[in-house]
Amino acid sequence: MHLQRNASPPGEAGDAQLSGLVRTHWMLASCVVCGHERVHGERHRATCPTCGATLHSFPLYRELRARA
To answer: Which structural domain, as residue segments, surrounds residue 47?
Structure first.
């Protein structure tokens, strides 16, 4: 059994670029009462260290730009 590979010379199809967003494990926690913000990973506090209100967390994304 022979595998056929579609290899193109450099400079033709090899110049394709990847772009998009990748979700990270980091989250942004913000307090709607006092405006306190902090970035956290897996372990974080559920309440604001400043006023004690509940923090709302939002996922952080990173832009992906790489040459394929």
So the answer is: 19-67
